[in-house]
Structure formats: C-alpha cells, structure tokens
Amino acid sequence: MSTRNLSSLSYSILDLATVIEGKTAADTFKRSVDVARHAEDWGYERYWFAEHHNMISVASSATSLLIGHIAEKTTKIRVGSGGIMLPNHSPLVIAEQFGTLATLYPDRIDLGLGRAPGSDQLTAMAIRGDRFNAANDFPTDVRKLQLYLSDENKNAKVRAIPGEGTNVPIWILGSSTDSAHLAAAYGLPYAFASHFAPQQFLNAIKIYRANFKPSAALQQPYVMACVNVVVADTDQEAERLSTSLKQLFIGIVTGQRKLLQEPVQSMEGIWDDMQEEAVQQMLAVSLIGGKETVKEDLQSFLAQTGVDEIMATSHIYDHTARLYSYQLFADIIKGK
After folding, report:
1. Which of 51, 242, 243, 260 could bridge across to 63 with cysteines, CB 3.0–4.6 Å?
2. CA 37, 44, 193, 315 torsion: positive or negative?
3. In this protein, which residues make up the domain named Luciferase-like (predicted)?
C-alpha cells in the first residue's frame, strides 16, 4: 500500500480529439486549444494526444501536427503523444518530427510510444503495407529512435536533422504486461492505458517496478495511469455526464461507432446486459462523481497503486461541463 499524498501527485490530460455529435473536427481542435490553455492555468503537467485511425469520433490521426498546434497556443505545459504507434512509422521520421517539435518548443515535448496499430487490421495494412508485422520490431525500433535523438549519432551515415541531440523524453505505453517488461528493461517511464484496458494494470505495474533497470533517462521507476475522469457538482450529475462515455464504449464493443452522443438520464434501453457488463469492465478504473466521491476514490486508487501521475481523459459532451470537470479534478488534487 502506498502512502503518497494527493498533493504530491502529478496530473495531466489525454485528449483523444473526440468529435461530438453535431460538430466537426475543426470544432474539436478549437476546444482542445481551450482545454489546454485552461489546463496550463490549473497546474496540469502535460497534454497528450493519441494516434488513432479510421475512427469517426477520434480526430487525432496526425498526432504530431496537433502536438505542434497545442504547443504553439500554450506557453509552459508539456505536450506530447500518448502515444505514437511506432510500428506505423519509420523511427527516423518520428525522430525528425519530434526533433522539430523539440527544437520549436524546447523542454516541452514528450514522446510516448505504443506498438498497437491504433486501428482495425484492415486500416493497419493500409498504413503499414509491407511492414505489417513491424510490431515485432518495436523493441529494436525504440532503440533506433533513442539513438537518432542522441548526440551519439552525430558521426553516423543516417542522422535525424533536426532531432539529433534533443533527447526528447521517451515513454513506453501499454495495455498489457509485454510493455511493462520492455519499459523496465530500457529504464523508461511507463504509462498504462487503464482508461479502457484495466484488466492487466495491477500486474503490469508490479512487473515494471520489480524489473526496472535504472538508465540515463530515469533512475527510479515512474508509473502513469490513464483514468476516465468525470467530476461535477453532484454524483448524480457526474453519472449523467458519464453516459456519453458509456455510449462511446458501446460503439467500441459492438463495432458500431458513433460521434460522441449527448448524455441521457438512464442507459436503460440503450445497452443490453452483455454490453453493460463489457462496458463496466472497461470502466473499472474510472473516477466519476462529485468532488468528495472522486477524492475518496482517488485516494483509494493511489493507496492501491502508488502511481506517480494520473492522466485524466474526459469524454464529456458539453464543453463547459468538460472544462469544469478538469477544474474540479485539479482542485481535488491541490486540496481546494
């Protein structure tokens, strides 16, 4: 059991650039800028986007472009990827892209890396082509990327310009124990996707901590958990707002994806028993409620896991309610 206090907890935001019903991707990007600017004022550590493809409700496919857009519109919050799906790309190209970002916005760019395609298999084939099995090269490609971003590569025949010498902080992302072993072996910070794949979370962070090897990048293990967060003035209002997220997850379970839907008073008649069970399993690591409820649940989660950082993701239909949720969550951690 951890004795970490809330006040020592770093807190950040994962933005999936969610497109809501009745709005466009352009509207989504404007709202992301607004959230990031407020998050900066509220003390959030970092603002990350996730690479996904062929999903009508997720507009963050060109992840590095959105990172640059948010970094340009803010002044101090760290901006990065949660994550770049490295097998979709050449390590050299990612080194050049993030090296460029780090050159434009020094000491503000993070590079979180995952090995999944961030989409369905047919789309993955369209992205990767002959490199369809590139996920098998993920450990090697991470090392290549580290080398391209280092000063050590300056005498190589293939160099990342810009990028070389920027040493952009690299994170390993995961939703299984495979990534935990890799992050531990490489001595890198570890971010877990407990917001949609919580089943192996506790086992994965145990493996990571037990096998962690210090590196030039990191001397002690560092765990970030991504968590669904919906905070409102009352438990009832938070539960109502969370029905948008539940409807989104039904789309994931059934394969019938929709834009983010308006909240409803009750999920009765929207999901069947099997869908409800599947969605509730995905929501196992979620903080939904009024301030006191979320504070208690967060303290319990922290005592159980001892994570170093919480990355909140909030699929809330109403923009004002979404901002308010992030503000209340920051207030909880700061003890307000």
Report:
1. 51
2. negative
3. 23-309
Q: What mean pLDDT do residues 67-87 have?
A: 96
Across residues 173-183, what is the average pLDDT?
A: 93
Would you tell me which CATH number, out of the four given (3.40.50.10860, 3.40.640.10, 3.20.20.30, 3.40.720.10), belongs to the domain 6-227+306-316? 3.20.20.30
Residue count of the chain: 336
Alpha helices of the chain — where are they, by DSSP H?
25-41, 63-73, 91-104, 121-128, 138-148, 177-186, 201-211, 235-241, 243-254, 273-282, 291-305, 319-334
Inter-residue contact 128 to 88 (CB < 8 Å): yes
Q: Which residue has the tokens 């490295």?
A: 86
Virtual CA dihedral for 25, 27, 32, 38, nearest 10 degrees?
A: -170
Give the amino acid at 172.
I
pLDDT at 33: 98
Answer yes or no: are the C-beta atoms of 59 and 25 closer than 8 Å: yes
